[in-house]
Amino acid sequence: MVVLKNIQPKGLPTAIVSDTTLAMQGTELLKNWLDAEQIKKAEAARRFDYDKSNFHNLLKGKIRPTLDLAKRIEVETNGAVPMQSWARVQ
Q: Among 30, 39, 36, which Cα is nearest to 63's?
């Protein structure tokens, strides 16, 4: 789990900090997997059958994957990036 160390306890509402942390978990897991497997972003986008520019935004945490894409990522990474890592808990 990614811990946001630079956010002051009183700086943001808990819901925002929690939501941001969860969104980053899938992103960080995917980035780590890409690095470990030495797979370029464009190649990963092709493997996941996903648009390269949207994949870039996914890695930056600007967008979240659809359930279908999250499942393709989980399958392609052999479970290293599980679907639930993208879940938003309210």
A: 30
**Which of 65, 60, 62, 20 has its CA nearest to residue 41?**
60
Q: Distance between CA 36 and CA 39 in Å, rounded? A: 8
pLDDT in tens, the chain (90 residues): 444 444 445 555 544 444 444 445 899 999 999 999 999 999 999 999 999 999 999 999 899 999 999 999 999 999 999 999 998 654
Give the SS3 label for residue 80.
Answer: coil
Residue 32: how many CB atoms within 10 A of its CB? 12
CATH number for 22: 1.10.260
